[in-house]
Amino acid sequence: MKTTKIIYWVTTALLSLLFLYSAQMYFFNTSSVTGYFEMLNFPSYIVIPLAIIKVLGVIMILWRKSNWLTEWAYAGFFFDLVLATAAHQNAGHALGLSAIGIPILFVSYFLGKKVRPNNLGTAIL
User: Fold this and answer.
1) Considering the entire predicted model, what is its pTM?
2) Which one of 1, 2, 7, 104 is at 20 to 30 Å from 39 when CA atoms are compared?
3) CB 114 within 8 A of CB 100
4) Alpha-carbon gap, residue 22 to 58, rounded angstroms
């Protein structure tokens, strides 16, 4: 069980760092990220809201106070990683951190269910 906990915390830390790195890029290099989004035919107005949601998602995954919100955070991260990977692939770019993040997310999610069981009883909104 100790090895499982270590693997869980390492993958969760890597996942959190990946999304915090992405969010800080969105906050501090907004103009270049906006241009990149426009090049991929994504709306540029979602850059800052997406950065905020990424930070909130990391908080929910680490805090884990509400199982319902934690599940949504993992789901949002999954969709973000899959869509980012598809966008990079479609644009002809090399697969990067988004493709590496998908297996890390799965390990964190499934080991988290073993290591951090539901102690809340019901979901809190």
Assistant:
1) 0.89
2) 104
3) no
4) 11
